[in-house]
């Protein structure tokens, strides 16, 4: 058998979570909360199940949920999507991104990714028969380098994938950067896949800049989000994609033969729960408090803090602590110190190692304190 993905192994997240469990380490590796979601959300799912909402929903998703999402996007980003034709509920952001790529990328098309990037993008592009064109974010700051992006655009460029707030670096694109992207894409046919799964985790008063707020981007964008991140339910695997009707139509052609539909009772529960915007509007403050606690503790260690403007990830430079490469350092840290982290090199095609590792701070205070106690011994 010839592998369709010869360079792909088991994802770093699975590997590090397994090692953390084996070594009984504090798991700050894979990004997921170690606390539960709002009990109201569980009640809403139970209620939906008990009311018999247990069969296939409409292919594009439960209408009430699509309407709630459209209302949210209009309120926050001032763009009006039709819930009927422009919003589709997906099995998490992972399926949304794969489906968008399969829907628009033809064999031989180029798709630009900005490295470091989330590990599913490049294999997704390759599964579609496309060619991933890797453009580095600026080393050190992880900000977009528009000269390099411009140089990578060719007549074969079908799409670019942008992720802000950014995993792993925590960088949040400014309005000026989004406008620069808008100007750059304007004379081209390039589509945008905008991975906005951390849209509600942006700190220090900064605002998330959704592609849907920029007309020249919205008209060519698949905007992707994830309820797993926003409502502390990563295991539920529900997200959505918002895109203009022509793009959504192509998306749905693939979606219907990929998953067809997504979990019915969870969609009803999310529609109910999301009518109150307080939980997602309060998420940035909730995570900023965790970030601040974690950063204050890390400042007492020999790990060097990098900026964290959004997401639930904090990166650190390990150069002063160890000469090991990132991957070996993470294994050593998990095994010997008892704290799991993720090497940033896992987000690069060539394993580029800049002595930076990522911690997830979506954890209870006591978990963060326990991890800090261990890290302070470094
Ligand atoms: N994109 C990014 C940048 C992510 O960090 C994640 C979560 N790991 C995903 C997509 C996938 O989200 P989901 O769990 O909803 O599939
Ligand atoms: N998005 C999560 C992270 O970056 C993990 C998701 C996964 O395990 N695939 O840690």
UniProtKB/TrEMBL annotation:
* UniProt-listed Gene3D superfamilies: Aspartate Aminotransferase, domain 1, Type I PLP-dependent aspartate aminotransferase-like (Major domain)
Q: Which residues form the Aminotransferase class I/classII large domain?
A: 24-375
Q: Which Pfam families match?
A: Aminotran_1_2
Q: Which cofactor does it need?
A: pyridoxal 5'-phosphate
Q: Which parts pass through the membrane?
A: none
InterPro entries tied to this protein: Aminotransferase_I/II_large, Kynurenine-oxoglutarate_AT, PyrdxlP-dep_Trfase, PyrdxlP-dep_Trfase_major, PyrdxlP-dep_Trfase_small
* Entry keywords, A to Z: Aminotransferase, Pyridoxal phosphate, Transferase
Give one GO term, molecular function aspect. transaminase activity
Q: Which domain of life is it from?
A: Bacteria
Query: CDD domains annotated for this entry?
Result: AAT_like
NCBIfam families linked: PRK09082.1 (NF006569)
For this entry, the protein name equals: Methionine aminotransferase
In its UniProt entry, the species of origin is given as Rhodoferax lithotrophicus
């Amino acid at each position: 058998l010839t592998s369709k993905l010869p360079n792909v192994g088991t994802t770093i997240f699975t590997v590090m979570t397994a090692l953390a469990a084996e070594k009984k380490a504090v798991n700050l590796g894979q990004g997921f909360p170690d606390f539960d979601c709002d009990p109201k959300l569980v009640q809403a799912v139970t209620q939906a199940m008990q009311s018999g909402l247990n069969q296939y929903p409409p292919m594009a998703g439960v209408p009430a949920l699509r309407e709630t999402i459209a209302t949210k996007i209009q309120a926050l980003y001032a763009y009006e999507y039709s819930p009927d034709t422009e919003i589709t509920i997906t099995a998490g952001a992972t399926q949304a991104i794969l489906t968008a790529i399969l829907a628009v990328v033809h064999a031989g098309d180029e798709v630009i990714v900005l490295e470091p990037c989330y590990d599913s993008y490049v294999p997704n592009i390759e599964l579609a028969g496309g060619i991933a064109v890797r453009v580095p974010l600026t080393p050190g700051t992880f900000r977009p380098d528009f000269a390099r992006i411009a140089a990578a655009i060719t007549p074969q460029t079908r799409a670019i994938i942008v992720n802000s707030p950014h995993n792993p670096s925590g960088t949040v694109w400014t309005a000026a950067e989004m406008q620069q992207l808008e100007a750059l894409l304007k004379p081209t046919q390039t589509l945008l896949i905008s991975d906005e799964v951390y849209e509600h985790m942006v700190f220090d008063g900064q605002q998330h800049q959704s592609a849907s707020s920029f007309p020249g981007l919205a008209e060519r964008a698949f905007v992707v989000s994830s309820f797993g991140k926003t409502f502390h339910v990563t295991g539920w695997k529900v997200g959505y994609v918002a895109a203009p009707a022509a793009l959504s139509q192509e998306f749905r052609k693939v979606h219907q033969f990929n998953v067809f539909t997504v979990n019915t009772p969870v969609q009803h529960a999310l529609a109910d729960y999301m009518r109150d915007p307080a939980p997602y509007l309060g998420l940035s403050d909730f995570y900023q408090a965790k970030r601040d606690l974690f950063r204050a503790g890390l400042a007492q260690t020999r790990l060097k803090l990098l900026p964290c403007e959004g997401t639930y990830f904090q990166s650190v430079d390990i150069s002063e602590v160890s000469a090991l490469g990132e991957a070996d350092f993470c294994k050593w840290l998990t095994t010997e110190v008892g704290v799991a982290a993720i090497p940033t090199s896992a987000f690069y095609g060539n394993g580029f190692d800049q002595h930076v590792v990522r911690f997830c701070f979506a954890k209870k205070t006591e978990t963060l304190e326990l991890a800090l106690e261990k890290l302070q011994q470094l």
